[in-house]
Amino acid sequence: MSKGFLKTLFLRLIFITFGCLIAAFALECVLIPRDVIDGGVVGISIMASYLTKMPLGLFLIVFNLPFVVMAFQKFGKMFVCLMFYGVIMLSLFSELFLETGIVFSEDTFIASIFGGIILGAGVGIVLKCNAALDGTEIMAIKLSQRHPFAVGEIVMFFNVFIFIVAGFIYGPDKAMYSAVTYFIAAKAIDTVLQGTSEAKSVFIMSGKYEEIGKEIMKNLDKSVTYLEAEGGYSGTKSKMVYCVITKIEIPKIKDIVSAIDPSAFIAIENVHEVDGKRYKKKH
User: Fold this and answer.
1) Per-residue pLDDT reduced to its tens digit, 195-229
2) What DSSP string runs through 217-280?
3) What does the buried/exposed string (b/e) look like for 217-255 if buried means 16 or more CB atoms within 10 Å of the residue's CB?
4) pTM of the predicted model, to two decimals?
């Protein structure tokens, strides 16, 4: 194994450990004391622990083991090893926080919101390191290959079932709080995975594409790319200007385009993550 690989693996293990620490805190110190659960295998484990009075960490390991084995064929050895490490760390940290007796908030509403944010941040960090803490999506991927349902639909059905069961165990109110927590956690995971970059990709269709491109490079110091394009109705071949800018630069680029070609077509889209010296030069 090369030094680069070992360094990457070491950093992943550190971040996975940190993510598990955050997630365990959210579960044991914020959500579970208020009888609020998460979806997926974690939610099932919490309910099983509540009913049997046995450690949550035990169920996290037992219930995730089949999915760890299932992931071996689909995702490879590295993913399985990192997932198993993550599940073990989450189980250990859960037991450690349980022993501390720390309770983040006595208000269920506040606990469900901030618990979801903290849990989502922890899970997101783990996912970003090419690992997982919950085998639900692995199961959904396998089932989607045999049935005419998308992965997201299977996960949603699975979680709806979990929250219905939670309604019978904890009561309807706690089940609804749990659904709120799951939704917030999912958004927090997306934020961690996709970043909070306010970058925008811009496509400009104009016969004066070269002049527009030069002005963008001159006034905004942004690199541009000319893409081949062809009109659907006219069949006229031309070129399209493509560049990535920040949110605050949108009015400036509109002014540039409007001054050169008022009839130009501009399309602006969100960009979740950007990497490159030309973009980061000024930001």
Assistant:
1) 666 688 999 998 899 999 999 998 888 889 999 88
2) HHHT----EEEEEE-TTT--EEEEEEEEEEGGGHHHHHHHHHHH-TT-EEEEEE-S----HHHH
3) eeebebbbeeeeeeeeeeeeeebbbbbbbbeebeeebee
4) 0.75
